[in-house]
Amino acid sequence: MFGDFDTGVIFDNLHFLVEGMQTTLVLTLIAIGGGLILGTLLALARLSRFRALSFCAGGYVNFFRSMPLILVIFWFYFLVPHVVGRPVGGFYSVLVAFVMFEAAYYCEIMRAGIQSVRKGQIYAGQALGLSYAQNMRYVVLPQAFRNMVPILMTQAIILFQDTSLVYVVGIKDFLVSADLVANRENRILEMFTTVALVYFVICLSGSLLVKRLQRKFAR
Amino acid sequence: MNYNWDWGVLFREPYLDWLISGFLWTISVSLAAWILAFTLGSIVGIARTVDNDWARGIATCYVETFRNIPLLVQMFLWYFVFPELLPYDAGMWVKRELPMPEFTTAVVCLGLYTASRVAEQVRAGIEAIGQGQRNAGLAIGLTPAQVYRYVLLPVSYRIIIPPLTSEFLTIFKNSSVALTIGVLETTAQARQIEEYTFQGFEAFTAATLLYIVVTSVVMLLMKLIEGRVRIPGMISLGAK
Question: What ipTM was predicted for this assembly?
Fold first, then answer.
């Protein structure tokens, strides 16, 4: 019960937990960056006039979206060392898994965002003599990004939560660090409650921020 | 990449049995959790739209709490922490005598978590109908309960069939998180086959195919249902 709730164990292992949180954050940030880049390319491919290209991009997205993230993590944990030809360490395998997996979700968000830009804007760009790349770079994507900021941030919060799944291959993220402390000190109650609270506070602040942004963007 | 291909491993005993039993566990966890999520999610979602501050406040707290803690952490909370918080006897009962402890915990955790997401869809569906229909219902003398039963819910549930379908697919995929507390479902079995035989490629391909097949079947089925229950002339309601 909470009667013998020992906060000392949290402070004694604070540096350990902070290290774990750093891993979680690094993983989240790289996955967002990589996922965004790959996802944008995929979205452009999906909306392309070339049938083969849009078909492949669509296949990629549907493939990854019908798989559980844990299975994707297992896949890449197993596959990456085989492809590279030597052991690369779990962290890099997991990183690749997250980027590839998130790209499928970001692709769908980007596609909706690009389609939300009015056709007239694209025609105006073409009429000015912009090439396809220039039109995308200077006209379509900046507007699309602005429309998507709230959804992209919501996806980032989901991703931040999902990184806890690296538990299944034992990468020392926030949750695994807490789990290790919990088992070593036999303080499961304290550690898991702390983990839940920290995640809750971070994600709630994030989603409140998203709500404010949404109100600001809604005109 | 040197790798010894052996697709036969999937059809040898006991690995075939492992995959089949894993698949059945995935289906049972998903369906049981979905029943819980759909029921509770509907109640919470409706509570977020009613004209009562208390009901709305409690429902909002529920949604925010369950949405903002990672599913895996919630799984651990239910499995490891929850029995400790109960009175001694009840905690002992949960630890010792709960039937199928891993399965039950996974279903409860997954169900409560997904209920918060279903609630958001239900709320969005009701709000999409707009205040006019509600006022019209009240004006012709329906009680608030009747307004929900005969005016708002029949339309809103039709609007949210597509997002509810994807919530079901999410619960189906999220059932893999149950492996962390020892439910040997599809993903766990694939991993186990990999560890026993080193035939990871074959094992994970089998699991992937199972997930893809179920996803495709569910999407097809829900498309059919959506077409069957459509109210002519009300298709554009969701977009408003």
Answer: 0.88
